[in-house]
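Everyone, study these two lines:
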Amino acid sequence: MTHKITIWTLNMAANLLNTKQQEIISLFKDYGFDAQFGQRPDTQDLAINLMPGTEYFVPIAPKCIGDLFDKEQNDILMGISKYYKAAGQVNYKEFWDYDGRDYKMLSAKYKGYYSILRESESNFLIGYSQGGLAARYLLWLAEDVFKEPGRVKGIITVSSPNFGSPLGNPDNVESIILGFLEIIITIFLPGKDEKAAARDLSSDVSLDTVSTTIKTLIERLGKRKNQSLSVSQKEKLTILKGILRELYNWIGGLRNDPNNAFYDLNIFRMNSPEPNYSVLSSINKTNPAKTIRGIISTDNSVSDILKDLFLILIEELIDILKECMKTNKKMKALMNEDALLKIEDYKKLSRVELRNKINKIQHIINNQIMMEHPSQSIKNPIIQDTINNYKNGISSLKIKAEAHDFVIPSAYQLTKLKDTIPVNCNTPNFKANHLSGSDLKYKAGRDNYKDIRTELTKMLKKGI
């Protein structure tokens, strides 16, 4: 008997699968499925993308549930509505109606993703980054809220924040600002006590300052004429700009705004007592061993990116810092403008000196920016377990300590069963960072596609 199934991608998973649709359909066919990719007619993004970019920042609960908040009533739906209303989230309809925001829902009013899934007998979801989180939320809605366990047959998450990210936790604002300042001081003021200097500057530097600096750097790198760069350098520059864009987006999670999807990426939302209707608490109530596989990105090497781009980065940062010094007296007092002008000094760095700077930057990213600095006690053992896995690594999966992909610690990407890590449910991609794993033009992206096929084959063999 042939079973019908609709395949959806969410977020940048569409980049990995759009040109591979027939291969995936054939794979399903080999196991008795009449498969097709879903098609969204209301978006300029790839039609197979259930969660297109315009809807990226819309909070996960309203974009998944939509008008089912009004059309269907049960205790869990009312609990979700009450939970987010208490947090200050606007009525779900606002995300379709409000034109003043630079992101909104494109589907017919007020049709959420779950209603779209109901138009198919069954669905298989493949989600990248936040797309994997939305996919898991849809699975939870199917199994626990609407009691339609066959609606979502299976999920593959790729580089997804299954336990959020430190970049989504407002408690980490101070430590992240200090980390960015330490990197600047490491580059421009060798011999200074980075931590002491960063603390001194931090009183005059806000999250908006960091966000604006990153945005300005992205814009400046985008305007550069790079004819003199090699093919490899151009690819690394594209990756660097992509990582900076992801950082810029994720910094929104530090603002504690319930009307932004990144509000839900704070692992400490799981600290609340039950009933807890946060996205992270909800998705981790489902059993990943049955229907979920995770592909984990772990490449956090700045050396490979910066060793060929260091001077380019220095040139752009010098001009940005000179502008900052015009309005920031502490920065002007700390940094001698004459020193900033001596780009030739940076060209004279030996390989050892350059490597030492890059290693120090790597250490700051790993231990200051990507590390949790909680202001509250940890009541939920899953939170402590996840943080410990980041600090210590995961030997069963050969994931090293402090592994991340520049926006999500690798340990936070795992699909887990309570306190255990199902090895057969998680596949690390040691060459992928958050950008390089998202597109077939990079080897890491091609490897992610191969891993998707491998994991899908395993799931089909077992029977979904």
Observations:
- The chain has two domains: 3-165+266-300+380-462, 170-257+301-369.
- Residues 267 and 276 are 13 Å apart (CA to CA).
- Residues 170-257+301-369 form one domain.
